[in-house]
Specification:
alpha/beta, Rossmann fold, seven-stranded mixed sheet
Length: 221
């Protein structure tokens, strides 16, 4: 926290190619800091940090309104079309230590597509990768961000129906991260009101975690 009336939250987005990871980062920032487009290969190859302007009307602390700043670290996807797992892991580890080494990380956001099924192998690979990055407490500091919720809704799946109909694989993953998940409508994510709803949910996750941060050090192992 920079001042008593201002709070900064540090986030990193992780996920597979074409899940909408960079687009989700842009939605959280309310900007277009990260390159996001459809492509037959992975678009993001390096980590980059985006910072939002001061956001008012989102949160209150100690009875007073606090301005919010959001910092989002965009990362190469895993699996990646051009980088090995080790290359992606080392780049993300280094960037986490560089950008959040002193202030700490509030949440890692695992980005999945709500309109595509989650296979057991994909869940296991994602969980293993995040654990390698964050360590044994990764479940406490990870939330699932389900993008393309608008496509799922067009197919007749409201959030409630979706959770009743989804695979045991996804339900198991959501349970492992203490049911920290958010549905992101890609058509509405740029709307100010929708962004405020998502940010409030993230702040609630952070509050449930007693505002703890995960301190990360660069490892060459």
């Amino acid at each position: 926290m920079a001042a008593s009336n201002e709070m900064t939250i540090n986030l990193v987005v992780l996920g597979r190619t074409q899940t909408g990871k960079s687009a989700a980062g842009n939605s959280l920032l309310g900007s277009s800091d990260f390159e996001s487009r459809r492509s037959p290969r992975s678009v993001t190859t390096r980590c980059s940090l985006g910072r939002s302007c001061r956001i008012s009307g989102i949160t209150r602390r100690n009875g007073c309104e606090s301005a919010l700043r959001v910092q989002v670290l965009d990362t190469p996807s895993y699996p990646h079309s051009d980088l090995s797992k080790e290359q992606v892991r080392d780049r993300v580890r280094s960037a986490l230590a560089h950008h959040f080494g002193k202030e700490g990380l509030h949440l890692a956001l695992l980005v999945l597509r709500a309109d595509l099924p989650l296979c057991p192998d994909e869940r296991d690979h994602a969980a293993q990768f995040i654990q390698e990055l964050l360590g044994p407490r990764w479940k406490d500091f990870t939330a699932v961000l389900l993008t393309h919720a608008d496509i799922a809704e067009e197919a007749g799946f409201s959030e409630e129906v979706y959770l009743q109909s989804t695979s045991s694989t996804l339900l198991s993953l959501l349970s492992s991260v203490h049911h920290k998940y958010i549905f992101l409508d890609n058509q509405k994510s740029i709307i100010k009101e929708q962004r405020a709803i998502v940010l409030r949910k993230l702040l609630n996750f952070i509050r449930q975690n007693n505002y703890q941060v995960l301190l990360l050090k660069h490892s060459k192992e």
